Amino acid sequence: MWSPLLLCLLVGIASADQHAWKTGQEYTYQVRGRTLAALHQVADQYTGIALKAQLKCQPKGSDALSCNIQRPQVAEIHAQLPGGWDSPLPEKKTNYQKFELSEKPFEISSRMA
Question: Quick one: signal sequence residues (predicted)?
Answer without folding.
Answer: 1-16
